[in-house]
Prior knowledge:
The chain has two domains: 3-103, no CATH class; 109-300, Jelly Rolls, CATH 2.60.120.200. It has helices at residues 3-29, 46-49, 52-58, 74-104, and strands at residues 109-111, 123-127, 134-138, 143-150, 153-154, 157-158, 160-167, 171-178, 189-195, 204-210, 214-220, 228-235, 239-245, 248-254, 260-267, 274-281, 284-300. By secondary structure, the chain is α+β, with helices and mostly antiparallel strands. The protein is globular and about 40 Å long.
Amino acid sequence: MDQHGIVAQTASSIRLAQWACAGTKAANEGTYPRANAMVPPDGWTWAAAQPVSRRMKQHGLIEPASYASADIRGKAGSSILDLVLLTMMIFQGFKEIVAFTLAGAGMVVAQPRPSGARSIFEGTSDVGKTKAGSTVYEPAGNLYRVTGGGADMWGAADDFHFSWVRVSGDATLTADIQFPWSSKAPLEKAVLIFRQSLDPASAYADNAIHADGHITLQYRATAGGKTADVTAAEHGSTRLRIERSGNRFTAYTGSADGKLTAFSGVTIAMEDPVYVGIGVCAHDAEGLTTVSFSNVSIERHSGSPGANKK
């Protein structure tokens, strides 16, 4: 087989492997009565496609249904498919082992900088026990779409998705927040937060708006301590702010005319640098929700390290 033939065969084998994985998953979950209820990908017949399940079983990927024996496009195609499936098994297995181990231990899964150019955040992390979240930045509208899971941000530990930057000194974080119309859990949370660390039990102060519109200053004064909160009189405000001045944290809500008004404050000792950013909690250990943050800015105050950086 020439070089072009090998490339074409490899691409075709990848499509077949993806098809087989999807079909077997559907069968195992009861979506289809059997794995072969799906139509094979272009360029494959049933006689050629069926033995893929046996090869996946050989590599430990699945426990497939029994199929009639047939050859699979000759030795070249068979060898390439073996290599593709083995690579998929190693890569997917490694990802799942790491994700489940870290999530089960309540650890932080650190991820790269939010996708998109010129994000003001250094990184994005799944904190606590949560399904994998993400942050996507859209420069045209200075918009962050944050997808997060987790049962709650409450008690002695938090579960949520967090996009952050490390800051020393006084700073102010401001953003407009929009929940999706499809929100079903009234206690889904979108937060502007200052946090001592990425540990789930970290001390923190945040300004949190819930899907039902109520807004709270939430805080944990010491690592592993209980969470407390103060509820704002303003309901449904979409523009929020939280400000740090020394160890004093003040939460603000925005009125219809755009004016920001402080509604509560708390004193919490935090050492520099602290983690500052935006987060989302689905209030559902098995779910995810996506919230939009726009016009996001971080102002560092005069006299503080890195003053006025946005």
